[in-house]
Amino acid sequence: SETMAQVKRWASLGREPFGNRNELTTWELALVIPVTVFSKYPIRLEEGGRLRANFYKCGDDQKTPHYLSWSPIGTEKPAFHAPDYFGTLYFE
């Protein structure tokens, strides 16, 4: 929880839970992840650096199961940890 508290987030649909939406809905999510969040891992992060990653959401226990990812995944079943489908993060 201490690490998560460092991450700043904004969602266009707000912060309160809501029920299923059956209509087509678009939304945006913005994250600001400080380099300190990554300090527990043996990777070198610096301004101008890059890192390959993916962010995902699993809604498999929902009324209508669904999955999404920041970087598209080209497999029949969700493979969120497949490096071939990671996107690039750029550090400022």
Task: Please provide a written account of the structure.
- By secondary structure, the protein is an all-beta fold.
- 0% of the residues lie in helices and 26% in strands.
- It has strands spanning 8-11, 29-32, 50-53, 56-59, 66-69, 87-90.
- A two-stranded antiparallel ribbon has the order 1-2. The protein has a two-stranded antiparallel ribbon with strand order 3-6. It has a two-stranded antiparallel sheet with strand order 4-5.
- Strand 4 and strand 5 form a beta hairpin.
Anisotropy-based shape: globular
Mean pLDDT: 85
Please compute the radius of gyration using only Cα atoms: 15 Å
Distance between the termini: 25 Å
Poorly predicted runs are: none
How can the largest sheet be summarized? 2 strands, antiparallel
**H/I helix tally:** 0
Number of strand segments: 6
What is the structural class? mainly beta
**Percentage of residues in strands:** 25-35%
Oligomeric form of this entry? single chain
- SSE series: EEEEEE
Q: What percent of residues adopt helix (DSSP H or I)? A: under 10%
Sheet with most strands: strand arrangement = 1-2
